[in-house]
Design brief:
9 helices; six-stranded parallel β-sheet; 215 residues; Rossmann fold; binds NADP nicotinamide-adenine-dinucleotide phosphate; alpha/beta
């Protein structure tokens, strides 16, 4: 599927970096916060020139939606608006900044909790294990020896394929990590989260992380 419009929920560090990178890749970008569009119009003009400041409902109606809001605010996302949409979950649980949130305090990955909340959305975990500053400088053309790889996890294979194409156009090798639960191995605190990897390295680390423990 050819994507035209990328909707971004969150105009903070990650949302604006994704917006600029997506604009560079030739996408039309709509960016929103929880506030009315008019309140972020000036910010968008300066920080993400070329992106349209819109209300969250309009961003949620885009071909592909990137959710980049602080995780402690995840319940302000709108499951009704995101039902049926392909949504990239770029969010991480950081107890240091989010505070301890009981919802994320079990063995499930944060994206599994988000998927349960956004029950109708086609959620793909990705873009969470790259710093917002790196996103714009580490991008490389396909085939570059030092091209960085980003993992994707989802229970929806079609949505995962769509997001893989997006990641590739942003300048990264998309690597299928498996179902949404596999996102646990590239959350904060993991080897994958803590460094940059090429496709070969990332595939190796994913295989290692998913290997059953030997007795
Ligand atoms: N920092 C990194 O390098 C990095 C990298 C990968 C992933 N992450 C993760 O990405 C997420 C966002 O991080 P950040 O550093 O970009 O946060 P941030 O700078 O605090 O920005 C968050 C943005 O989300 C908006 N927002 C809040 N509720 C919203 C809603 N319901 N709908 C739309 N927008 C909403 C906020 O605007 P208003 O509150 O004004 O509405 C703000 O613009 C976090 O989960 C973080 O862990 C961070």
């Amino acid at each position: 599927m050819e994507l035209g419009v990328i909707g971004i929920l969150g105009a903070g560090q990650v949302g604006t970096a994704v917006a600029r990178q997506a604009l560079k890749a030739g996408y039309r970008v709509k960016i929103a916060t929880a506030k009315p569009a008019a309140e972020i119009a000036l910010l968008a003009e300066i920080i993400t020139p070329g992106a349209e400041a819109v209300d969250a409902a309009e961003a949620a109606a885009a071909d592909l939606v990137v959710a980049a809001v602080p995780l402690h605010k995840y319940r302000t996302l709108r499951p009704d608006l995101l039902a049926g949409r392909t949504v990239v979950d770029a969010m991480n649980y950081w107890a240091q900044t989010d505070g301890v949130i009981a919802d994320f305090d079990d063995e499930r990955g944060s994206s599994e909790v988000i998927q349960e909340f956004l029950a109708g959305a086609r959620l793909v975990k990705s873009l969470n294990h790259i710093g917002y500053r790196e996103l714009e400088v580490d991008a490389r053309e396909p085939g570059s020896a030092d091209r960085r790889a980003l993992a994707l996890a989802s229970d929806d294979d079609d949505a995962k394929a769509v997001v893989a194409g997006f990641i590739d156009r942003l300048g990264y090798d998309p690597i299928d990590a498996g179902p949404l639960s596999a996102g646990r191995v590239f959350q904060p605190g993991t080897t994958i989260f803590n460094a940059a990897h090429t496709a070969k390295q990332l595939r190796g680390l994913l295989a290692e992380a998913n290997e059953p423990a030997r007795p």
